[in-house]
């Protein structure tokens, strides 16, 4: 009856009016497939309040603070291209685990339902909610009590398929054993008919050697184009051409004459292979390239020479450039602004960047960019960017893998108000709170990762308290600061300023010469606060011997 697995085997049905409703309850049984099933009232559960925009419980779409519509499965940004790139891996908006956001197995969903049921029951007791009583309308009449015996079933069917005799309708089966015998008889009859049909079909197939049912698809060339395109989705252009181009003319046309988007990965490519792809594939199909990955100075110089040729890659969505020289970056970003589909960008600069602020400004001007990862091996220190006023970026996931100071971080992030995920590597302090940046709050930022930092606990508190109130996932790594092992301070900090935190991944390395004191610090992380959230900690002690010299 249902297209999905359900925890029980009940069958739900509706009635047209109260007469049918009360009549069904009076009868007490319903016949389906020659079986009588008991009838009971269906009392629907209290409905969950959830948002179809961000898929979190507790509010509706009309009151959602998120301006970004998210995928119900993976919680990625649900735009026109998401269906083609979504991997279908579930991610829960409540607990952050690998299950669907409204999965009944989610602990947050279970707690919410339990609390909701308790509140509804209490509201009924207090009189806040009044249960509606069923009233009969003037045209509806109560069904008189039936005096029939309801422990009955229909007469059993004859097992003789060719000679069905009339049976007295007043004869009824009254016991469970007769009911089971009827079911077995029907199942046996069904199998006999199916076997007879299969035998006749097999006989016809033997008599007709040219039957289409005897034919099978044994050649790869017979696969429909739609399936071939699905296979192409998982291959870069080099593998596509080397595997399919020489099969026959049909595959040559699929590769050369179609508008199917292609992916190019030149990360680990020899010079001869690159020159062949450049001449026969890249230059002829610039308008079809959707993904381009480069990591060699020679290949970057060849493809983007002259630099204005970048504007010809009109369908480019993903660009990954590794080991690019700083002199090319600014010009490249200038022409990338002409691409209306570029949503993912990774740039790793191999030499020193003279003005990193200019590079950031160019990135923030890309019109539809959603994901950006930047790494500058070396750069010249400069004044922080001014606070953004009327020019904002569409970036939602930002990764900065080069050094960044606390006093310039907020100014940098002010250009990306839609930011949801932030990853920082080498974050330095001391924190200097600028007057104009104090009021900037990033309400969409829910996932933060900070690795290799020298921030103090006070600086971390100030940063999150003033700017990141909606954190749900925090990854933090800090070495050689005992204050970060203060479990009581973490409890106060999380309770006061990170009430929505669900995922807490914390790494800390210290030099501890007194193992007992170190163990005492760790024991504080076993309080009910941590256990209730299912946050558990492990530690590893590495001893190091010190040789003495005379």
Automatic annotation (TrEMBL):
Per its UniProt record, what InterPro entries does this chain match? Answer: F-box_dom
Q: Residue spans with biased composition (Basic and acidic residues)?
A: 196-209
Positions of region (Disordered) = 183-217
Residues covered by the F-box domain: 217-264
Q: Which SUPFAM superfamilies match?
A: RNI-like
Q: Which residues form a coiled coil?
A: none
Q: What is this protein called?
A: F-box domain-containing protein
Q: Which organism was this protein described from? A: Rotaria sordida
Origin organism lineage: Eukaryota, Metazoa, Spiralia, Gnathifera, Rotifera
